[in-house]
Amino acid sequence: RMETDCNPMELPNNTGFEEDSDYRDFEGTDVKDMRLEAEAVVNDVLFAVSNMFVSKTLPCAEDVAYINVETREKNRYCLELTEAGLRVVAYDFDQTDDRLQTPYHETVYSLLDSLSPAYREVFGNALLQRLEALKKDGQS
What we know:
It holds the Pfam family GSKIP_dom. It comes from Buceros rhinoceros silvestris. Belongs to the GSKIP family. This is GSK3-beta interaction protein. InterPro entries: GSKIP, GSKIP_dom, GSKIP_dom_sf. There is one protein chain. By secondary structure, the chain is an alpha+beta fold. It has one domain: copper amine oxidase-like fold. The protein has 4 helices and 4 strands. Strand 2 and strand 3 form a beta hairpin. 20% of the residues are buried. The N terminus is likely disordered.
């Protein structure tokens, strides 16, 4: 049904890139590691979805990472994270479907906002609680 664009078994086990400290410690580069970026995205919104984690099956690279998310409505998505933003690449975990032409979202918030009314409600309530707490702090 769905196709993955890259079989992890076909990838060489040791590309040498991670081991090469010259690259890792090279200062002055603007290269982001998308896996770290993806972990940050997950940590940001995990409280407002049923399940969310960086894919361990699909290959992560400097310029792309994949995030699996299950909304509170029990809908599953695989998201692609690149410099262009986030977009849905499949309607299941650890899948990509090249036929899917979904728009990029600049933030995970706008993407989830478009996919999940329950996310919107939970996130909105958390925001209100934070504002209330700030208001109380300001009055004391």
